[in-house]
Every structure is written in C-alpha cells, then in structure tokens.
Amino acid sequence: MANLEDVMSCVETSCASNAESLDHADMMPMSISEIAKAVHGEIHEFNSCDTDLVANSVFSDSRQIRNGSVFVAIVGEHVDGHDYVKNAEKSGAVVAIVEHVVEGTNLNQIVVNNSIEALGLLAKHNLELRRNLNKPFTIIGITGSVGKTTTKDMLKALLSTLGETVAPVGSFNNNIGLPLTAL
Questions:
Q1: Do 100 and 112 form a contact (C-beta atoms < 8 A)?
Q2: What is the structure's pLDDT at 167?
Q3: Mean pLDDT of successive 10-residue segments in the chain (183 residues)?
Q4: In angstroms, how far is CA 125 from the centroid of its own chain?
Q5: How many CB atoms lie within 10 A of CB 134?
C-alpha cells in the first residue's frame, strides 16, 4: 500500500504534466448507423453512405481529426463548428454530428436537434457498451466548489495501487467536457 508521501509525490508529478484541454476522446468502435441511433439523429447521406463504416474516436476540434473519427459540430459563443465540417472531412472523419446539413462536402452527416446533447447521448451509449464487456469498472464523480482536481489526482494515485485506473488530465466540468471524459 502506498504511503501519503508517495501519493503526494505522484499527485504533484501528475499535476505538473497535465494538459488543461480536452477536445476529443477515443470510444468503443461504432458504426455510423449505431451512432445515429444512439444520438437520436438522422443520417444525411452523401456518396452512398456506408452505415456500417466504423468510427473509433470523437473530436470537437476539426484540427485534431484523424482517420476514423466522428466530428461533433458545436455552436459556440464565437465559433460555429459547422464552419469546420469540410476540414474534418479532409482530415479523415467518417461522419459529422451536425444541427443542420452542411453543403459543399461529401462527409456523411448525422443531423440532430442539439449537438451538445447528442455528444452526451453518445457518451452514455459508449459507457453502456463498455459495461457489456464483462470487465467490471466503477465511475467516481467528484463535485464541489474547491479542490476537485486535487481530490481527483489523489484518488487516482491511491486507486492506481489497486489496479488499472483512468482519470482525465484536468477537470472538465461542463456539458462538453464531461461527455468527452466519459467517452
């Protein structure tokens, strides 16, 4: 069992190396049709969509797209992700989750009412798939006003002495960061 000094050393090292951004997540491989069903969306086909085509990661930043990705077009205060669907296609995305069809691209699109809500639904479905793998796991959520990141880092250090442990690199406490963390 680790002692407190070992844990704090691990926490300090972890905190020093943590990036403070989250714009994508790897996910369980899913077909376009499975994604559309999970997010309650409608597939808008370009070039005879292969609905069995599989995606294995999700991005909300088109600059980070890699082959086999889902791009989620999020409308923000200053930037509209729909403006970057073409970039996502060029970078290898297999499908985009959008709130309206984006013309001028051959990327297949799943049209939803709200892309942020769809991201949450996709994360929920991904967790359900992981639970069906018969590899038990526990999810721990930490709430509060102060100390969440430190608490998360300390718990990760302690729990990693017991087995495989996963924790986000930072605290992403919003309706975009939480689903990306869960994916």
A1: no
A2: 81
A3: 42 37 71 96 78 88 93 95 96 96 94 97 92 82 85 92 83 75 74
A4: 12
A5: 5
Q: What is the four-CA torsion angle of 125, 64, 154, 136, rounded to 10 degrees?
A: 30
Q: CB-based contacts of 177: which residues, under 8 Å, 6+ apart? A: 22, 168, 171
Q: Which domains does the chain have, with CATH numbers?
A: 4-21+133-182 (no CATH), 26-114 (3.40.1390.10)
Distance CA 148, CA 173 (A): 10
Upper half-sphere CA count for residue 152 (Cβ side, 13 Å): 21
pLDDT of residue 143: 83
Distance CA 49, CA 114 (A): 22
CA angle 166, 181, 21 (to 5 degrees): 105
User: Which single residue is written with the structure tokens 């087995």?
Assistant: 163
pTM of structure:
0.78
Alpha helices (H) along 54-159: 85-90, 115-131, 148-159
Sign of the C-alpha dihedral, residues 94, 100, 102, 103? Answer: positive
Residue 158: exposed, middle, or buried by beta-carbon count in 10 A (0-12, 13-18, 19+)? Answer: middle
Return the pLDDT at 49: 65
